[in-house]
Amino acid sequence: MLKKLTKNCLFNTTVDNKVHNNITMSKGAVLNCHICNESTHTFIHEKTNISYYYCEKCAYIFKSPKYYQNFDTQKKRYNLHTNDENDEGYKAYFKRFLDFVLPVVGSPKDALDFGCGRSTILSNMIKNKDIKCDFYDPIYHPDTLNDDKKYDLIVSVEVFEHLHQPRTTFEYLSEKLNEEGYLAIQTAFHSNDIKTFKTWYYHQDPTHIVFFTPKTFTVLCKQYGCKLLATNDKNMVVIQKEKADIL
Length: 247
Fold this sequence. Notes:
Number of helices: 8
Helix content: 25-40%
Radius of gyration: 18 Å
Largest sheet: 6 strands, mixed
Distance between the termini: 22 Å
Oligomer: single chain
Strand content: 15-25%
Structural class: alpha/beta
């Protein structure tokens, strides 16, 4: 049986508050990387005074847990999103994602849109490609996930930058893939340059707390029996679960 996913897996504030308490008690303490557990370097955004932690080994950046928002606060912000399923620009946005992903993954029999938000437009577009597609979102569709079901394809668009525990979520999603199944993720990649990062728009959203590069996902893949198949080096990766070795 697969691990059961809860809202705390995505938005765990209890653990984060413990970490934050340790930081305030020990000024200048260094936090280990969420992804590879290596030590990180700290830098501060001068305009916001927010501390960030950067891991050289896997090129992962995360905000100080002091600024992680609880589930209800995040929900209020997401409720402001107006993603109209009839909006042609919104459809084109997802079409660009599918145009990158589908040629890589071939013809999966079924799929899951993980973190779909209020709208189910992406899952409907996948269905229109003759692929059965379920959808799940911890806020708007919290009861649609079958913990025992596995998929040939899982897509997750603009989700990973919100995760308090990205490695836990990556592990869970990898376990929900069939052998040689695919995980396709969209999240904006940082430039791996701190000076440029400080002027980047993406971290200004208070719900965006963790930031990746293709290298970060390569490190995650090695931990959980996957391989990175494709990236556009901007905001998309396609990952494949490797076939288990037969003893």
